[in-house]
Amino acid sequence: MQPDDLAIDIIVDLFETQTGQRISADRRWRITPSLAGLLRETGLESLSDLIVELTRSDDERLPRKVVEALLNNETYFFRDRQVFDHVDKVILPRLAAENASRRRMRVWSAGCSTGQEALSLAMLFASQPSRWHGWQVEIHATDVSHAVIDFARRATYSSFQIQRGLGVSEMLGFFRETPGGWQANRQLTDMVRFDVHNLLAPPPAGEAFDLVLCRNVLLYFDADTRARAFARLSEASRPDGELVLGGGELVLGRAGTFTADAQMHGVFRNGAGGPSRTTAAA
Ligand SMILES: C[S@@+](CC[C@H](N)C(=O)[O-])C[C@H]1O[C@@H](n2cnc3c(N)ncnc32)[C@H](O)[C@@H]1O
């Protein structure tokens, strides 16, 4: 075994402990290039030196930076438009009818990366001011990575990021160009709160969520970790609340208390078993 092989084993374990994600043998090649920038930044020469530094130093930012360099933060506005159309036309009207007396809607974007998913949800509400007038809409957006949450809180995007998924009218209607990039307006940011949070930890405090989006996060969890994640998502959701996973995420393991929507792939209801629903594959 080469010294860096041992270092890679230690990094794989650190990453799994911090995020629940296991880097499989065929994806380990990504570790060295992903950490090259951090080695340059810290002046360390090899992954083995990095492990020595991790053991020696009690600066908690270094292990955090290692983990953050390995996370896949890919996201863009209205990723999978048809899912947002379904949320807008089917899920929100049902939840709105159920919440009509209290006029409050709580949404969780779990694994929100740099915030585009949460702001896309906010745009759905902001696009229909008469429908949501008088409602208290709270979108809580969380991610295990401090770096992406710091970015999301600025809500300012490059020309490349703003054009990924947004039409010109959305771009000009909800963002303004600043020297630092395209900044989301208060109409959106007032609805969204960003926090660092690990999906495997107890859910964010507060009332249960009506709708949870956890898309493209569970992909690299093994079956047991996915089951733990479903337990957390279930704890966070109100009975009959909706859960939306990524389109490509097959629920092969236990989906806890969630029941799959027979019509829309990737959509689940907490504890439901109506005629249009089938129990998710166990
Ligand atoms: C590929 S991005 C998906 C972003 C967005 N949900 C979307 O679909 O466009 C996955 C995000 O999940 C976050 N993540 C990974 N493991 C996590 C965990 N255990 N708890 C919270 N967030 C996690 C990553 O940091 C990353 O930002």
Word description of this protein:
The protein has 2 domains: 3-70, no CATH class; 81-279, Vaccinia Virus protein VP39 (Rossmann fold, 3-Layer(aba) Sandwich). The chain is globular. It is α/β, with parallel strands linked by helices and 282 residues long. It has 12 helices and 11 strands. It starts with a helix and ends with a strand.
Shape: globular
H/E element order? HHHHHEHHEHEHHEEHEEHEEEE
* Major beta-sheet overview: 8 strands, mixed
**Average pLDDT taken over every residue:** 92
Main CATH class of the largest domain? Alpha Beta
CATH architecture of the largest domain: 3-Layer(aba) Sandwich
Number of helices: 12
List the helices and strands and how they pair.
Blueprint: H1 3-19, H2 31-42, H3 47-56, H4 61-70, H5 81-98, E1 104-110, H6 116-126, H7 129-132, E2 136-143, H8 146-154, E3 156-157, H9 159-163, H10 168-174, E4 175-178, E5 181-184, H11 186-189, E6 192-196, E7 209-214, H12 223-236, E8 237-245, E9 258-261, E10 267-270, E11 277-279
Parallel strand pairs: 1-2, 1-7, 2-6, 7-8
Antiparallel strand pairs: 3-5, 4-5, 8-10, 9-10, 9-11
Helix pairs in contact: 1-3, 1-4, 2-4
Bound molecules: S-adenosylmethionine.
Residues 19-21, 71-75, 79, 111-113, 117, 143-145, 148, 198-200, 215-217, 246 line the site of S-adenosylmethionine.
